[in-house]
Amino acid sequence: MNILITGASRGIGLATAKRLAAKGHSVGLFDIDTAELERAVTDKAFKKALKAKRIVQGHLDVTDPESWDTAIEHMVDNLGGIDTLINNAGVLVSGTLPSTNLDKQLSLIDINCKGVLIGCHKLAPHLADSKQGKIINLSSASAIYGQSEVAPYAASKFFVRGLTEGLNIEYAELGIKVIDVMPLWVKSDMTKDISVTSIDRLGINLTVEDVAKKLAKLSTCANRKLKATHYPIGLPAKLLQKASQVAPDPIMRFVNSRIGTK
Q1: What is the pLDDT of residues 92-105, one digit of tens each?
Q2: At residue 260, does pLDDT exceed 60?
Q3: Catalytic positions, please?
Q4: Is the pTM of this model over 0.85?
Q5: How far is CA 1 from the centre of its chain?
Q6: Residue 127, domain CATH
Q7: Where are the alpha helices (DSSP H) in the chain?
Q8: Domain count within the chain
Q9: pLDDT digits (tens, 9 = 90+) for 55-90
Q10: Which residue range(s) make up the domain with 10?
Q11: What separation in angstroms does the CA of 102 have from each of 32, 87, 131, 155, 186?
Q12: C-alpha separations of 220 from 18, 24, 52 in Å
């Protein structure tokens, strides 16, 4: 399969690319940080795939539609087509909203929301040509109930969740499966320097490899076997999702306030 991954120079994106390449799939690694991406693809995990010409890499600013066009063209020219898009690129800003930099928060919305939307828009015609076309969006357990101290980030993941649900229905007639994964906190560059009460209370129990394992499995799974729309990763995320389906809103608010506020 040919799989395009955004935000692939580090963290979850890179770990997923390594796992897929090792399993014999063709992978397009794209990132805005091309210098870091150049270093990433020199990893020995890509040695066989590079020799077999199963690796494509390039610049991609997910907020720029023309940048998507260039990346897609590069992928198609070198690999012949695209079967799966993993919309992984994203950023996180922590802190109470008035205490954070507004420009950074607005950039977060651009990357986490507009970036995912543009990818879903641009890839649809190409994925429709694949027998197993699918889009996997990186959502979060923060999309189950909004979290204090990362409210804009949580809101951006609510956007991803809603977009995924709508396109899961809309794109079915194109033969494209649209799903998302919903991990809680993951130990990565994104979370290493942030201070959030819910991390103090719950800790960080997932690694990038935990998420990469799930993404690799979902991205290569036959569409007919993908029965769910949302795939929580880790026990806390699974429990929160189950609880949200049956618990009244005041109870979910109470639980999240206990977890996420000092």
Answers
A1: 999 999 999 999 99
A2: no
A3: 153
A4: yes
A5: 18
A6: 3.40.50.720
A7: 11-22, 34-40, 47-51, 65-79, 102-109, 115-128, 151-170, 197-202, 208-220, 235-246, 249-260
A8: 1
A9: 999 999 999 999 999 999 999 999 999 999 999 999
A10: 2-260
A11: 21, 24, 43, 15, 25
A12: 14, 11, 19
